[in-house]
């Protein structure tokens, strides 16, 4: 995970965009989400959606745990064990999530990219109402409804661009 120097963290005017982060674990995802909020002076609801999307990038992207597999693991009480196991497996252990913060005149733009094969985001957003969301599957919806003005999936679905109005600060 990329850590910024103390001066940049404490002085907004010292921040030069773009800023890049590289992470692999849930703990790192939480740290990065908190740092982004602090650096950009954003409200807490942005943290919620950002953390959800970072978790999705790790679980569903890099570790290739699809919705049905996650449901099985939750029901068996073994999701955490499986995540830990996969993080150590050769095919997954060198995968990272990359976060890039840029800006335009009116928005901060947070791009999250994982090293998984992506997903059909058009199908996912169209079919989520038919899915049992009682145990999981709400991350994208939460991010769209409470955290970001706009979410845009790119390419094969392993990259998402999130827009936060600068006026939300």
Number of helices, where a helix is a run of at least 4 consecutive DSSP H or I residues: 7
* CATH fold label: Heat Shock Protein 90
Across the major sheet, the strand order is 1-2-3-5-4
At CATH level 2, the architecture is 2-Layer Sandwich
Low-pLDDT residue intervals, each spanning 5 or more residues: 2-12, 126-130
Main sheet record: 5 strands, antiparallel
Strand content: 15-25%
**N/C terminus separation:** 25 Å
User: Mind telling me the C-alpha Rg?
Assistant: 16 Å
Instruction: Report the top-level CATH class.
Output: Alpha Beta
Shape, per Cα inertia axes: globular
User: Please, how many domains?
Assistant: 1
Task: Write up this protein.
- This protein has 169 residues and is an alpha+beta fold.
- The chain has a single domain, classed as Heat Shock Protein 90.
- The chain has 7 helices and 5 strands, in the order αβααααββααββ.
- The protein has helices at residues 6-10, 26-40, 44-62, 67-76, 79-88, 121-127, 139-147, and strands spanning 19-23, 97-103, 107-113, 150-154, 159-165.
- It has a 5-stranded antiparallel beta sheet, covered by helices on one side.
- A hairpin with a 4-residue loop joins β4 (150-154) and β5 (159-165).
- The model is unreliable at 2-12 and 126-130 (pLDDT under 50).
């Amino acid at each position: 995970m990329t850590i910024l120097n103390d001066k940049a963290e404490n002085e907004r005017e010292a921040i030069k965009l773009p800023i890049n982060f590289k992470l692999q674990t849930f703990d790192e995802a939480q740290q990065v989400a908190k740092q982004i909020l602090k650096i950009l002076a954003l409200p807490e609801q942005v943290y919620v959606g950002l953390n959800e999307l970072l978790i999705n990038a790790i679980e569903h992207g890099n570790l290739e745990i699809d919705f049905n597999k996650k449901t099985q693991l939750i029901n068996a009480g073994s999701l955490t064990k499986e995540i830990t196991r996969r993080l150590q497996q050769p095919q997954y252990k060198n995968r990272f999530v990359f976060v890039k913060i840029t800006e335009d005149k009116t928005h901060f733009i947070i791009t999250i990219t994982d090293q998984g094969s992506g997903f059909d985001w058009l199908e996912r957003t169209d079919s989520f109402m038919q899915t049992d969301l009682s145990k999981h599957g709400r991350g994208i919806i939460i991010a769209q409804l409470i955290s970001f003005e706009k979410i845009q999936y790119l390419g094969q679905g392993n990259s998402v661009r999130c827009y936060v109005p600068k006026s939300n600060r």
